[in-house]
Write a sequence for this structure.
């Protein structure tokens, strides 16, 4: 699959998830269901909910999140982080920013463990405080939720306070980082990516590398949006199954399979 086709799918998922052009914040029956990627509930056009927002909601009301953990578990067992590579609009946003000509910086993979720390910290902090803190500082939330609300609803502008400016600052940091670093939010911060990535190695969708064909030329890592050495670890927790490596491999050593 070409990168253009993947871009079309990513853009389509953005519009399908945010297709409630009602003039007011949609709160209909579809909002009870989540898409398998970050999608701010506060977006004026959001038709579906966010899995991380929903997870925090259940933690706040002290109910075990059977539904959302089952949903994330199902998505992860079927596709791993495939949705990060093909459906997530915020991932697309970062990839487009990285195309801007600039000095490119490679960050050691060790820092990828930070997202698991953030996931655990998020759960603990939300449980202790009873507040959906990740939603309050989520850069995707301010991009598709907070900023459009302020733009399209002038009555809310007087309510803008310190927290909103902090969120905007975090978004600007992510935007700046994404120009120099491959998908920084996805690699080092995203709690949903952390959860789905843990299931990469047992998911139905898998990448395989033919070691007899592979010359370890490094082309796959160079093109990988997550900077993964697929030839060393085709089932990496960070692999988003975007298939760029498969298309670009000169030896045709990388294959995509469903099943064991």
């Amino acid at each position: 699959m070409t990168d253009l086709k993947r871009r079309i799918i990513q853009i389509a998922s953005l519009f399908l998830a945010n297709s409630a052009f009602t003039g007011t914040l949609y709160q209909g029956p579809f909002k009870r269901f989540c898409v398998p990627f970050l999608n701010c509930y506060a977006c004026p056009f959001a038709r579906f909910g966010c899995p991380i927002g929903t997870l925090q909601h259940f933690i706040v009301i002290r109910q075990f999140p059977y539904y959302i953990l089952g949903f994330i578990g199902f998505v992860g067992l079927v596709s791993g982080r495939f949705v990060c590579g093909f459906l997530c609009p915020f991932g697309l946003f970062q990839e487009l920013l990285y195309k801007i000509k600039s000095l490119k910086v490679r960050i050691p993979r060790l820092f990828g463990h930070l997202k698991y720390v953030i996931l655990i910290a998020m759960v603990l902090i939300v449980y202790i405080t009873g507040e959906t803190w990740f939603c309050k500082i989520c850069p995707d939330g301010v991009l598709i939720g907070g900023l459009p609300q302020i733009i399209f609803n002038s009555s809310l502008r007087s309510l803008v306070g310190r927290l909103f400016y902090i969120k905007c600052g975090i978004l600007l940091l992510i935007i700046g980082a994404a120009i120099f670093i491959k998908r920084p939010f996805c690699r080092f911060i995203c709690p949903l990516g952390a959860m789905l990535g843990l299931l990469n190695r047992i998911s139905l969708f898998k990448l395989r590398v033919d070691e007899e064909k592979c010359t370890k030329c490094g082309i796959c890592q160079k093109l990988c949006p997550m900077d993964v050495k697929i030839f060393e670890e085709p089932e990496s927790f960070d692999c988003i199954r975007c298939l760029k490596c498969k298309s670009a491999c000169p030896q045709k050593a990388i294959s995509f399979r469903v099943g064991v």
Summary: Residues 82 and 241 are 5 Å apart (CA to CA). Strands lie at 205-209, 254-258. The longest helix spans residues 162-180. The chain has two domains: 3-197, 204-258.
